[in-house]
Amino acid sequence: MLVYMRGAGDIATGIALRLHRAGLAVVMADIAEPTCIRRTVAFCEAIRLGEACVEGVCARLAHDAAQARAIADTSDIAVVVDPAADMLGETAPDVVVDAILAKKNLGTTIDMAPVVIGVGPGFTAGVDCHAAVETKRGHYLGRALYEGSPIANTGIPGIIGGHGSERVLRAPADGTFDPLAAIGDIVRTGDVVARVDGVPMPATIDGVLRGLLAPGVHVLRGMKSGDIDPRGDASFCDTVSDKASAVGGGVLEAILRLSGALGRQTAAPALRVEVAPTAFPEGE
Q1: Pick from 44, 36, 32: nearest CA to 224
Q2: Which residue, 32, 68, 207, 244, could crosslink 78 as a Cys pair with Cβ 3.0–4.6 Å?
Q3: What are 50-61's pLDDT values in tens digits?
Q4: Whole-angstrom Cα distance, residue 243 to residue 260?
């Protein structure tokens, strides 16, 4: 079974790992200059480096649909530059998963494949996808929804180690991003971890720098450009998050249920979540 994933950031990578380990072939698509900050656990790094390995699984850059299918048929994951999903016709996937996490639908439709799954806010099961998966931290994280939509985005980062929005680093100016520290470094409040056209971007809290944009990325002032983990464990930088794994489990459930891959139809009722949109904060 071939899965074509829109998006190859850290959450998409957690999903891809679960699918790959379950025996599914995976092709991931992203933009030419990805803006994922958790680059050590994001297969989109293959676009910049040619190859990216996460938790023992490697993804390789493919330059066309035929090459992508060939890579996906091996023990690796294929990554392509295809933001508009133009390669869908040639790859002919059994499943499309939209894991761009744009908080809105950027063009995925329910007729793109026999099974289409939307990840996070912006999708409605039965309208633009066959199932949607909840991405907000909290009681419903990772749930596969077969009707209705995931909880609306609040714009507030999730709480990790007692810190929320203050752990996110944002570009201090428009310009070219120049990192001065590396993912995995221990930082203290006030340490300058990057510059944008000479303007410093200081650490906002103490902790481990677990996310930072790649050198040379063009940023706009206020753009999410880094992330500090206050728990202080640098090993977390090399493994996908609990959130990514949970969401990946929901996607895998939906694929198995909707594709009939297990040879039977589940009788379990579809869950529809009715929760106030500010119930749980969004983000890693």
Answers
A1: 36
A2: 68
A3: 999 999 999 999
A4: 26
